[in-house]
TrEMBL record:
GO BP: any one term: tRNA wobble position uridine thiolation
InterPro entries hit by this protein: DsrEFH-like (IPR027396), Sulphur_relay_TusB/DsrH (IPR007215)
Gene that this sequence comes from: dsrH
Source superkingdom: Bacteria
GO cellular component terms given for this protein: sulfurtransferase complex
Protein name: Sulfurtransferase complex subunit TusB
Pfam families registered for this protein in UniProt: DsrH (PF04077)
């Protein structure tokens, strides 16, 4: 399953997200959701600790917010092509 977070982690129920994600799921942070990928983010630490999943962040959105150098090393930066590939490979999709 593909989980996408397009809102700030302070605007959604991140605890529900953490409890919903399964081991084979992937998470993509985009739009304001990219703030969850910042170094020392408590939400990112919780996700990594509780779920050994792949976490991706959309390059265009982190660049638009001037956050490229602040992204945690546990997160893989992808472009729109990578997002399309993940969408094809992981069905269904849940948007948070």
């Amino acid at each position: 399953m593909l989980h996408t977070v397009s809102h700030s982690p302070y605007q959604i129920d991140m605890n529900a997200l953490v409890n919903t994600i399964a081991q084979d799921d992937v998470l993509v942070l985009l739009q304001d959701g990219v703030t969850a990928a910042l170094k020392d983010s408590r939400w990112l630490a919780l996700l990594i600790q509780r779920n050994p999943i792949n976490i991706y962040v959309l390059r265009e959105d982190i660049e638009a917010r001037g956050l490229l150098l602040l992204i945690d090393s546990h997160v893989e930066i992808i472009d729109y092509s990578g997002l399309v590939d993940l969408s094809v490979d992981h069905y269904p999709q849940v948007n948070w």
